[in-house]
Amino acid sequence: MAERHPVTAVIDEGSMDSGDGHEVHWTLAGNTAGKPAVLLHGGPGSGSSPNHRKMFDPAKYLIVQFDQRNCGRSTPNASHPDVDLSTNTTAHLIADIEQLRTLLGIERWLVWGGSWGTTLGLAYAAAHPTAVTELLLSSVVMSTTAEVDWVTRAMGRIFPEQWSDFVDAIPADTRHGNLALAYNRLLMDPDPSVHGPAAQAWCDWEDVHVSIAGGFRPDPRFEDPGFRLAFARLVTHYWAHGAFLAEDRLVENARRLGDIPVLLCHGRRDISAPADVAFELHRACANSELFIAEHDGHGGASMTDWMIDTANRLAVGDSSTRTAE
Q1: Which of 84, 120, 272, 325 is the most exposed place for a label (fewest CB within 10 A)?
Q2: Within a domain: 319
Q3: Is 148 helix (H, G, I), strand (E, B) or coil?
């Protein structure tokens, strides 16, 4: 087992005005003279986690984290009754990442992403390849229509009892169409008697489809009604609209990432995101590695060990740092 690095204290933080009324909260940890790494959280809507810093040696890395639009400590929060999500798209998030890099005076950085963060990381690298030293991606998803259909509908063949509850929570006339869109319409209703049960049903299903790996525990964050609503609203907002990306765009762009190292890890038992997605991306990237953790699901101990070892290895490479204090 790789030694987890300590969750070091935040050494700087702030709020970035990213336009459209959004304030994006960011933090720095580790060594200001170290190799910069930006960590892209999952969800969409999970918010950044201090635990993600355990993968990066604080003596060797400058660790940048931020809460994507409308979640975590960024404002406005998606749990607000009349929140407007129209200015929260993949293109907006890519612009936020680049604005943050410029704000912090960073020339180039390693981009880590987990789950939804892998989609965002790939999209960012394609848009700004000269800003990326490496892509380190865990639990790979590309948020295609086929993947969303799998996780919201086809997976009902594996969990038929729970899927029945999931689909019964939406109106009968919407059950044969885009399920993420049907849920999003309920979730965006300002009436708590409408959006509250929908958020609970969505998050119950989220817990089900990540539960197959050993050691599973229900996500304690879903006990918070505000988190539950914000998370469900943002996930369905993105999934209902194909992550605001052209279908198969990420695979096509991956073929043009050139010399950027793309380091991938995935769990064999990941039912939420089957391993063929990671394998397809690996085949599309000329300069990629793929590690399949045989006993992990959508995350797991073996994957974390591999990421720590890989981050340690990458720390001795390009150490582009902040260009301004």
Answers
A1: 325
A2: no
A3: helix
Q: Which domain holds residue 210?
A: 146-243
Classify residue 185: in a domain, yes or no.
Answer: yes
B/e letters for 150-182, b = 16+ CB within 10 Å, e = fewer, are bbbbebbeebeebbeebbebbeeeeeeebbbbb
Catalytic residue of the set 270, 282, 288, 302: 270
Report cis status (omega within 30 of 0) of the bond before 44: yes
Other CB atoms closer than 10 Å to residue 313's CB: what's the count? 10
322 inside domain: no
CA dist 69 and 88 (Å) reads 6
Tokens of 9: 């204290």
Domains of the chain: total: 2
Going by C-alpha positions, the residue among 195, 220, 186, 190 that lies closest to residue 206 is 220
Q: Bigger pLDDT: 145 or 316?
A: 145
- The pLDDT tens digits for 78-101 are 999 889 999 999 999 999 999 999
Which of 202, 226, 243 is the C-terminal boundary of a domain?
243
Q: In this predicted model, what pLDDT tens digit does every residue of 224-268 receive, in sequence order?
A: 999 999 999 999 999 999 999 988 778 888 888 989 999 999 999
CB 271 within 8 A of CB 209: yes
Whether pTM exceeds 0.90: yes
Please tell me whether residues 172 and 107 are part of one structural domain: no
Instruction: Give start and end residues of each alpha helix (H) in 128-224.
Output: 145-152, 160-168, 179-187, 192-209
Question: Quick check: helix, strand or coil at residue 138?
Answer: strand
Cα 31 to Cα 11, 105, 159, 308, 320, distances in angstroms: 9, 15, 45, 17, 13
pLDDT band at 184 (very low <50, low <70, confident <90, very high): very high
Within a domain: 1: no
Is residue 115 annotated as a catalytic residue, yes or no? yes
Given a cut of 60, is residue 322 above it in pLDDT?
no
Spot the catalytic one: 115, 138, 143, 288. Answer: 115
Dihedral sign, Cα of residue 225, residue 228, residue 232, residue 234 = positive
